[in-house]
Amino acid sequence: MIAKGNARLHARSAQNVERSHEGLSEVVGPHESPAVRTSGAGSRPISPRASHERSRRAVGTESMTASKPHRIGLLAGSGQYPIHFARGARLCGHKVVAVAIEEEADPKLADHVDEIHWAGVGHLVDILNTFREARVTEVVLTGKIHKTHLFNHVTLDDQMKKVIASLPRKDDVSLLCAIAREFERTGLKLREPTAFLEDLQAAPGVLTRRSPTVAEMADVNYGFTVAKNLADLGIGQTVVVKGGVILAVEAIEGTDKTIERAGTLVPDGLVVVKVGSRNQDRRFDMPVVGMETMKVLVQSHVTVLAIDAANTVILDRESLVEEADRQGMSFIAV
User: Fold this and answer.
1) What is the CA radius of gyration of the chain?
2) Taking the model in full, what pTM does it have?
């Protein structure tokens, strides 16, 4: 029964390749590995979809990058994304006021912001008051805040308790949207972090020297469809595939642990697919890949990393691609 179900999913995935991956339709033939058109030696892959995405992003971010410098609030979780955001915002001339989440944010963030304040993950009132007292009106959310805090007996203030109790489903999207509403009720507007990070997103195409094989591309197509459904449900953003079999799906543990788990099941030749949802709210929970993830990919003998071009932030892109090339890995934006 499971085998038949997987076969049906795989068949549907194959039928939906052209619809789901319009950005690759120009560069991937029906019987060959993907090839890439570029705008010149060393240039990034280009396509009409890429131009459309850049135009769409430009419309939504014009007020942030073109306006005179002002104070931007940064609610910082774990990982390197908050640091990259702070650098980008300051390069645009903005002042960055960070509220760093205790037990999540990197202390090195302090070196890259104009002000830093620390708060517990459940102290919503303190977080809101800190931004208001700092004369901030626009806030971005970057970095992961692990949902395991819900089960670790962290201290929640009354406002955070009320937010959580109001949600019948506590998936990532529901939680973040509810918290976003609390910010906006107090006059704090949540903005899209990628307004400062357009250079950290990729147009559709192959970013490395090696393209996926035909078999690997079939796994990318299958994984992309499954991962999109997973993301739409607010469960996770990553799936690991080999030979048309889903080896692992991401839930509360996060991307890196999902990949590690798959690596314990199958020793090599893994295809990792990471995507945003079909209706991705670009203000928060954008998929992010960087060198921390690359270390796990190498340890788990991953041969292909495929990301959602329209909805993924790439940190340390040059180093990431160089390491993928060194490992013989294919890195593709779909």
Assistant:
1) 20
2) 0.76
Distances (CA, A) of 271 to 100, 236, 262, 314, 330: 34, 16, 10, 18, 9
Query: Distance (Å, rounded) from C-alpha 269 to C-alpha 76?
Result: 35
Please report the pLDDT score of residue 198 as a whole number: 64
Q: What is the pLDDT of residue 145?
A: 87
Q: Which of 190, 200, 152 is nearest to 311 (CA)?
A: 200
> Distance between CA 134 and CA 177 in Å, rounded?
23
Residues 194/313, Cβ–Cβ less than 8 Å: yes
Residue 139: name the closest of 70, 62, 88 by CA.
70
Nearest in space to 14 (alpha carbons), one of 158, 193, 183, 217: 217
Residues of the chain with CATH 3.40.140.80: 2-47+203-333
